[in-house]
Amino acid sequence: MGVGTPTRPTTPLKVALVTANGTDATAGTEVTGGSYARQNLAVAAAVNGATSNSADLVWTGMPATTVVGVEVWDNAGPPVRLWYGPLTASRTVAAGDEFRLPAGSLGLSIS
Fold first, then answer.
1. pLDDT tens, the chain, 111 aa long
2. Most buried pick, 16, 25, 97, 111, via CB within 10 A?
């Protein structure tokens, strides 16, 4: 059995906010409206198969919504979802509010 050469995801990776979490087979329901747009993800060096965002992720001008999870996508056409997961606690934002994930708060791991 041989080992293949994996294709690296197209960068920059993008973080999407979702109002309904997805599954292994289906993406979640992404936030829409306001000034919402996926944010570029910068990550720290991986340690034991895990990393986290190395800079704050900030969405300004959010629509009124409840964010329940995040997804990480590559920047290919069409984009491919690489990671997904729920927030520890849902967050409700009012129209025009800012949504922030501080550096180190978005943990990504391979197990």
1. 556 655 666 679 999 999 999 999 999 999 999 999 999 999 988 899 899 999 999 999 999 999 999 999 998 888 999 999 999 999 999 999 999 999 999 999 877
2. 16
